[in-house]
Amino acid sequence: MVTFLDALRQRYGAADDTAYDDDAFLVSTSKPKFRQKKWEMVGLEETRVKQADHSKLTVVSLPEAGIDKAESEPGQLKDARLLRVRDLDLSRNETLTLPEIDTIVRNLPALQELQLNNIPLPTLQVAEKWKYLRTLTLNHTGLSWDHIDALAALPRLVELHFEANNLRTFGRDESAVLPSVTVLNIAANNIDSWDFAPHVARQFPALKELRLHGNPLRCPADPVQLLTTLETLWLANAAMEGAQAVNWIAAQCPRLVSLRVSYGTLLPGMSEAQARMCVIASVPTLTSLNNGTVRPKERADAELFYLQRALRTTDAEERGQSYPRWVELETKYKSVMTASPEDASAPAAVMLRLTFRSLGNPDTVKTLPSSLTVGKLKSIVSTIWRDMTPDKQRLAFCSGDEVGAMPAQPLDDDMQTLAHFGVGTGAIIEVLDHEKPER
């Protein structure tokens, strides 16, 4: 039998050194067994004393600790005075039952976040002491959606995680409403239809963030009302593909500021940098994409990349369907475009101010059209540094926006234009010599 307090002492130490044998310490009177050490010899005494005072713990993480009992005798947890614990992780303690979990929760009066991942739960009953919880994680517990009704007893619940529970149905019309929940995670549940959306919208009227990654969802023919109020959406590894899917997301989510997608799944055939630019330009409200901030310069580069792709599309109907923002962006960037869609003889281009950088040489700045091919760019480089002939060059570019910028992207196709690669004004062209090793 392993109690909660046993696991706590094992993980965070005990006030009395005698609770440990000699091999528990890195430095001891006998030869240490490094695989069993619990303390590093860095502020050993101070760390041991600080952690051993369990009454000061605010975060307790005990995943896979073999816990099967809350306490060995009544009153032990109360006597431990764990009055400050706000965040508790009991994940993967697979023999822990709901009554034992309830005993633990009842003795943690400050608890706000509880993780019960990978604990088989045949049912869900919430006691009165759970009412202060703000975040509850029930991933991979085997619970059904009907069990969510029990959470109506948690008036402060803001964040609910219900991932990987093999959901097929989403309850009844009379299912309980959880009015305070703003974040819902139902990822990896094999959901392949948007039929769940009306149920979720009714149960979670304050929802702002929805995580659906890992579900084989496709774009439906009809609008999804649930999405219209969302500010954050996770759709990585869904079954959506192509520009039409990106445009569908933009149309369905007018308030969206944060999005997570899988570039390779959503826009196959594009590099990660190109796919990112297409998504940013398609969704004008985004300020964060795949946990990366969308900076003003990145948005400008993305929108110009999007516009140039649109203007290279000669079929007007296809252009309108694939690039619905092209008219808006053409007006926005008219002053920097060198051709219009009516001028079919000349490719649409943007004049780019580029900085050429080569190791051991001073930087050189030139203004060139985005319609220039990489092959011609190499010829220009050879006029700047005459010893660097095109056959010796390897080119890459970075945005020039140092804060949070993506790594340098290779310009690895001599026949493609700078616009194809998404090179924006202010970019830095890195010129590497094939014959010289990189530093």
Description:
This protein has 439 residues and is of the alpha/beta class. The chain has two domains: 55-306, Ribonuclease Inhibitor (Leucine-rich repeat, LRR (right-handed beta-alpha superhelix)), CATH 3.80.10.10; 351-433, Ubiquitin-like (UB roll). 25% of the residues lie in helices and 14% in strands. The chain has 13 helices and 16 strands. The chain has helices spanning 4-12, 44-52, 76-80, 98-106, 197-203, 243-252, 263-266, 272-282, 296-311, 316-322, 326-332, 374-384, 418-421; strands at residues 59-61, 87-89, 113-115, 135-137, 159-161, 183-185, 209-211, 232-234, 258-260, 288-289, 292-293, 351-358, 364-369, 393-398, 409-411, 428-433. An eleven-stranded mixed β-sheet has the order 1-2-3-4-5-6-7-8-9-10-11, covered by helices on one side. A five-stranded mixed β-sheet has the order 13-12-16-14-15, with helices on one face. Helix 8 packs across helix 9. It is elongated and about 85 Å long.
